[in-house]
Design goal:
mainly alpha
C-alpha cells in the first residue's frame, strides 16, 4: 500500500512540476545562456558516446543479420534490417538510455544536492521559482538536442553496419549495395517515428529526474538513493513509452 501511495505521489508531483514549468515558457528568451549551457551538457558532451555505441551497435546488428541471412541467401538485404532497426527502435531507445544514465543521473544529483543543502529554499526565499530557473531550460534543451543525437546515432549506426558488412568474410557486401538497399527500404516516416519517440523519451527522462531531485529529503545518503531511483524509473518509462508510442504510430499509419 505504501509503495502504491509513493507511486501515485510521484506521478502527481511530476505532472504538477510539468504544469509549473510550462507556465514559465515565456521566460525562456531571458534564460538563453542557461538554455545554451544545457544544450552543451545534454547534447555536445553526450555526442561522442552516442557515436561510439551507435557504430558498434550497427556493426553487431549487421554481423548477426549476416550470419542468419546467409543460410537463406538473403544477406543482400542487411542494409534494410540495419536501416529500419536503427531508425525505428535502436536509435531513439539507445540515445534515451544514455541520456538517463549520463545526463539524468547528473541532473538528479545536482538538484538533490541543492535541495538537501537548502539552496532550493534560498531560491524560493528570493522569489525565484526552481521550475523556471532549473527545470524549464533543461526541458527546452532536451527537446532541441534529442533529435540531433538520434539522427547522429542513426547515421553512425548505418555506417557501422556498412563497415561490418564489408569486412566480414561470410557477408562481404559492397557499401554501394548496402546503402542502395537501405535507401530502398528505410523511408522518411521511419526516421520521423524514431525522432518522435526520442522527443518523448528525452522529455520524460529530464522531467522525472528533475522531479525526483527537487523532492529529495534527508542527507547525503538520500542523494545517492534519489539518483538510483531516477535512473531506474527513467529506464522503465523509456520501455513502457516505447511500447505505447509504437502502438499509436502503427495505428496512425495503417
Amino acid at each position: 500500500m505504501k509503495q502504491l501511495i509513493a507511486i501515485l505521489d510521484g506521478f502527481g508531483s511530476t505532472w504538477l512540476l510539468l504544469v509549473r514549468s510550462l507556465s514559465y515558457i515565456g521566460t525562456l528568451p531571458r534564460q538563453f545562456p542557461r538554455f545554451i549551457e544545457q544544450c552543451y551538457l545534454i547534447g555536445y558532451t553526450t555526442m561522442p558516446i552516442v557515436a561510439i555505441l551507435s557504430f558498434f551497435i550497427g556493426s553487431v546488428l549487421a554481423l548477426q543479420a549476416g550470419y542468419s541471412m546467409e543460410n537463406v541467401g538473403t544477406q543482400q538485404l542487411i542494409g534494410s534490417l540495419v536501416g529500419l532497426s536503427m531508425a525505428r527502435e535502436l536509435g531513439p531507445v539507445m540515445v534515451a538510455i544514455l541520456l538517463a544514465g549520463r545526463v539524468g543521473s547528473a541532473i538528479t544529483a545536482e538538484l538533490a544536492s541543492m535541495k538537501v543543502y537548502q539552496e532550493i529554499d534560498a531560491l524560493e526565499t528570493m522569489n525565484i521559482p526552481p521550475a523556471r530557473m532549473l527545470v524549464m531550460p533543461r526541458l527546452a534543451a532536451v527537446l532541441v538536442m534529442m533529435p540531433v543525437l538520434t539522427i547522429i546515432g542513426d547515421l553512425v549506426g548505418w555506417y557501422g553496419g556498412a563497415f561490418s558488412a564489408k569486412v566480414t568474410d561470410f557477408i562481404s557486401i559492397e557499401p554501394e549495395t548496402y546503402f542502395t538497399v537501405l535507401r530502398q527500404y528505410t523511408k522518411f516516416k521511419d526516421v520521423l517515428n524514431g525522432l518522435i519517440k526520442a522527443e518523448i523519451f528525452g522529455f520524460a527522462v529530464v522531467l522525472v529526474c528533475c522531479n525526483i531531485g527537487l523532492n529529495t529529503r534527508g542527507g547525503p545518503r538520500e542523494i545517492g538513493a534519489s539518483v538510483t531511483r531516477a535512473v531506474v524509473v527513467s529506464l522503465i518509462l523509456i520501455l513502457v513509452f516505447d511500447y505505447f508510442v509504437t502502438q499509436v504510430l502503427m495505428f496512425m499509419q495503417r
